[in-house]
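Annex B. Sample input.
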Amino acid sequence: MAPSLAKKPYFNLDRELRACFADVAPLLPAEIKERAMKPERVRVELVGHRPGGVLERFGGGEKVRVYDSVKPNYGFKQFWRDLWGRKAEA
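Annex B, continued. Sample output.
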């Protein structure tokens, strides 16, 4: 029994848009001026170049020894077997 205007959320879209714009129209000129006068933000930090690569920076430049063995290494398969295998009874 409500009037047809109350039944529809947007009875007339053009009228609704004009009503919304009328609410914010007085604020637009000040906002445009404020945004135009703001100094531009620096979006990316500029970092100077340093000699050396990325690995040298994070590695610390320490001397490292690498041991190469012929014996089979302890891998995922051995880990899985140790984790889920039967425990030896003591």
